[in-house]
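Our consortium's second objective concerns turning raw sequence data into structural hypotheses that experimental partners can test. To show how far this objective has progressed, the report includes one record in full. It was chosen at random from the queue rather than selected for favorable results. The single chain below, 358 residues long, was entered without modification.
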Amino acid sequence: MKYTIATIPGDGIGPDVVAEAVKVLQTVAEVSGFTVEFVASPMGGAAIDATGLPLPESTLVACRSADAVLLGAVGGPRWDGLPGNLRPEAGLLGLRAAMGAYANLRPARIFPELADACPLKPEIVSGGLDLLIVRELTGGIYFGERGRSPDGGAAWDTERYTKAEIERLLDVAYRAARSRKRKLCVVDKANVLESSRLWRQTAQEFAARHPDVETSFMYVDNCAMQLVRNPGQFDVIATSNMFGDILSDEASMITGSIGMLPSASIGDAGPGIFEPIHGSAPDLAGKDQANPLATILSAAMLLSYGLGRGAEAALIERAVSSVLAAGRRCVDIATGAAGEIVLGTRAMGEAVVRAIER
């Protein structure tokens, strides 16, 4: 079996971490008996420098022709002065919309080996942490009407959702909940926002039709507090684009490092987009200091959700766990404990490769 994976290294540390994930995928393919072809394309700042556009048509064609897309990170201060539609992030939003990837799955779990890196008191996370945030990805305030007044004294961004957009996201969330603990919390701001009232109304209708899943509701500000006070109460969280963006970053820090969390962006058909949730960290680019594990775990999600190869995805996850159990750490997850060995980006990727081969 042969698969084509479109890779978008992007900016900053993106090329560094994608290179390690590619090595891991190549190793998994070799030991599992399938073939992978990688097609690299520019997006974000790198594409702006090369073509003047954050998302060239050639990149979009490559992504649509692939079986899955592996993305590093985009953006950086050198492009901050550009108009909004020409910034690197516009390429990312455009790719998600063009690929129909409306559901972003962001798992957050504490590896037992990294429990000491969690900033919360041990008793708060004594039962472990394993939750999934299902974030709507192609609607809401990030895609709504925006602008500035002629005098520059006012600006606006519009939060807008249709019932159909909410329903398809909830469908993904309920399927995810059924594969886990059958608990779903829908997060909104229905006491203030009209768009959130539509979210809650639609979710209440879904809950009535799906009694096999325990459905609860929570305001986003309370959810942000509860993630710190008692994160173990959550299993699957479904929410809007902006709320999901913020809450998943908060959840990532509870696990110990944003450098550990992968994500999958999927739709009804076509290739999914798999990427770490961290940014481009341009200050670390090319220094062999970035943690590649979030991108490597995104490659595991690519195998599972993108190619339907759950066994091979589990192989990567076990390899990462074994590397952590052996005391290997990147600087962002190092605690200074006895027995830790701090590795650079390439050495950590090699450690995972060796674990897979074993």
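The partners drew two points from this record. The domain at 1-104+268-358 is CATH 3.40.718.10 (Isopropylmalate Dehydrogenase). The chain is about 40% helix and 20% strand. Both points have been shared with the crystallography group to help prioritize constructs.
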